[in-house]
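Researcher: Re-running this chain for the archive, since the previous output was lost when a drive failed. Same request as before.
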Amino acid sequence: MKPSALPAFMATALLLACQPSNPVPVEYLAIKGATLFDGTGAIRPNSIIVIREGRIESVGGPELPIPEGAEMLDLSGKFITPGLVDAHVHFGQTGFFDGRPDALDIRDTLDYAELQSYLQLHPERYYEAYLRSGVTAVYDVGGYPWTLGLQAAAENNLNAPHVAAAGPLLTPVPDENLTAINTPAQKQLLNLKSPEFGREAVRQNSSLGSKGIKIWGLDLNNAAFMESLRAVAEEVERQQNTLIVHATDLDQAKEALRLGARVLVHSVDDKLVDDEFIALAKQARAVYCPTLVVVRGYLNAYKALQSDFVLADPNRAVDSGTRNLLQSAGLFYKYMPNPDGYTDMLTRMEASLSAMDSVMATNLKRVYEAGIPIAVSTDAGNPGTLHGISIYDEMEAMQRAGIPAAEILVMGTKIGAQTMGRGDDFGTLEAGKMADLVILEQDPTQDIAHMRSITHVMRGGRLRLVNQPFATTTNPE
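Model: Regenerated structure tokens:
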């Protein structure tokens, strides 16, 4: 930060924190002096952003007119980006094994059905974790029916990110094998048992406002399932919805693209993508969501059962419930089904992950070079992949794969918003868009790890520090 900018910035911060309980509203806020990355790839040094009623009124350089009486915020020496978008999350999962009993069944201690009831009533458990990580929009690409209601409930809640949700997933897995991750009251995974069932599921989810229909795995050798899946794909198109597919094998991913999948929510990790895959992805106009870090998150969660979980969270954005579970993970080691084989399991996972990481990184670079849209996606909620802060790990893994930092920033803002179907509303800092942005100390286009230098987040025009819990600060309305 330039020394000359410090007094103005501190004065403004004090002004925001010490306003009277019924302040006189200021019609315009003008933010000036920062280097601005608008989400399109453009860079604007010494920028000015004028914000009015939660939206961007205008963006420009020093020549941009500032309305008379506007509140001024001098951010000279700082950097501004659009709010980040995580295009793959799950609100029904916690970041620990209590949300995934199929990975480690600890239901004798932590009741899974009770957890889902709690999460339905308290989605704010993760809202603040996202905002204080600079994530102002998320795409829940598969979960319980209650996740669909988050879309409307969160939209005008400035304490929440924007939410898009797909709702229950369709899968070839039989119902009897889904009992661990469904509850008696609601199902998040549905066996795709017939074409008629699939069509009805698509119609019902679409009528409830789902932003996508997700398929959890393909069974290419099951003719009855594939017939049902084709019926689903036809109905998705008829309902003008979006086909989302979890397909990590190359053959499955290709078939998903042939069926018209618009979002591939994981990397292809079994073999290198080929020219046919690239052509199919372009033809389908699909978005590639790599989720490079989620499997390693599982490994880290298993390791935490016998050692400390490394939590890089200097702003303490992670919710206290998840933090406490991770810090007491050793209490759940007793649930390991084969404790004598624990060390060997970790060794095998590490070896497998090393090979998988190499394939995923090579495929991501190939997809990028082919010009296929890529959205930053974490699969947050899975054990070891935490809501909010995992976005940094994912972006840094993408950079290690060879994607330039400036391009990752576009993938984590503009492309993510477009994947959610919200490209007209946010994802770039342009006139008419929502005032969702992040303030940084360091340049994220030089190193995407500089996204960790976040100091403030703005959602809908409300600016807040990220190193303090929202409940402890007073903010302008």
